[in-house]
Every structure is written in structure tokens, then in C-alpha cells.
Design brief:
Blueprint: H1 3-20, H2 22-46, H3 55-74, H4 77-84, H5 87-92, H6 97-127, H7 132-157, H8 163-179, H9 192-199, H10 202-214, H11 222-243, H12 249-257
Helix pairs in contact: 1-6, 2-3, 2-6, 3-6, 3-7, 3-10, 6-7, 7-10, 7-11, 10-11
Length: about 260
Amino acid sequence: MSAASAVYGIVSRDLRRATRQSGRLVGGLARPFMWLVLIGTGYGAIARVEGGMPYQAYVVPGVVVMASLFGGMLTAISTVYDREFGVLRLMLASPAGVPALLAGRSLAAAAVGILQGGVVLAVAPLVSPVGVDQLAAGFVVLVVNSFASGVLGLLVASRLRSVENFAGVINVVLFPLLFASGALYPVAGLPRFLRVLAAVNPVTYQVDLLRHALDRGAELSVGLDLATIAGTTVVAFALAALLFDPEQRFVGRAKKGD
């Protein structure tokens, strides 16, 4: 089997699985819509963003990233399912190997993130005016962000062996990534230690890049955002390939070498 065929098979299998889990897709959309419509309305009555921008307008990029982040990272649970039930061992027997498996899983996770983030992005103009050109630029950024989020999810899942462990670990990872990213409030106004966390948080740069696309109060440069997203995605993919090793090939050799 060629690498391309293996990637295609993994993507189609994961997307069929995701579409059958309609409850998870609906739940993934409920969270950002709740923040955008309910919490955003309440915060808008008391919060003031620098420059006079309404809070609901400011938070649109953040809730789009929220939808794509949760959709992309949570799709990695299929990897844990396959490992727990022994399917992963059969998939790795393919000549395509770990890189093709990770590429397929990343693309499937990105597709789910694009779907969830795209729905929120499409509805955003009803809450806060967004131009057609801004929506188009935002969709391009959404594609980039969703792939990056999918790779991060695979990195988290790379050494987990049960669905219960994944559920616990992913929540510990997801919420700090979101709340220390500037998705829901400006990073510049945070205490110093939280600004440091935001600076090393890859999701910060996803949010800021989408703010550039939608013209919603970006704080960093486009070049820095793109370079950081690309760099962290490559590093996360490489680390996942190293750790995604159920036969202990890499880790086992390292232990023997010690």
C-alpha cells in the first residue's frame, strides 16, 4: 500500500467515525456559541476593550479558534481507541508506517476543526459585522489553525493507552491553552506570569493570526504568528512520530543504550 493510499484510507475512516458521533460535533459547537451569544452578551455590558471595540466583536476570533481547537484536538481520541482495542498495531503493520498514519490522522482532525470552526465563522456576521474579504481570509487562517490543532492533539495522544486517560489529560491541556491565549481577553492586560505563558502558548499565535484576518485587535505581527504556528506544528509532528511507538522501538533502544 502506498503512503497516499494509506493516508486517504485513514482520513476517510476517521471522518466516517466523526460524522457518526453527532453528539460530539454538536457539543463542540455548543461551547463557542454559548460564549459568543450568552456570555459575550453579558460581558459586553461590563467589559470594555481598548479602542472601543464591543466585546462580542473582539471575541469572535477567539470563539472560532475555540471551536477548531476543541474539534481538532479531540479527534485524536480515535488514536487512543485504536491503541486500546489493538487496531493501531494492525495499522502500523502497513509499509507506509507512522508518518502516513500521523498525516492521515492530522488531516482528519483538521477537517473536523475546519467544520466546527467554519460553522462559527459563518454565523459570526450575525453577531458582529464581518466583510466578505475578511471571511475569506479568516477561512484560510482557520485551515492553518485546524491542522496545527490536530497535530497538537496527536502529540497529546501519542503515549496514552486508554480513553479515560485521554479524557483527563486533554482537559488539563485544552483549557490552559485556550485561557492563556488571548482568545477571550487581551493578553496585554494580563499579569506578567500569564503574559509569559501566553508567549510560549502556540494557540496565542493562532488567535492573533485570525484577529489579523478579521481585523479584530491583533497584538503581534503576521510574520511572527505564521513562523510560530509553522515551527510548533513541525516540532509537534516530529515529537509525535517519535513518541507514537507502541512497540517501544525508539524508547526501548534508548533504555538499552543507557
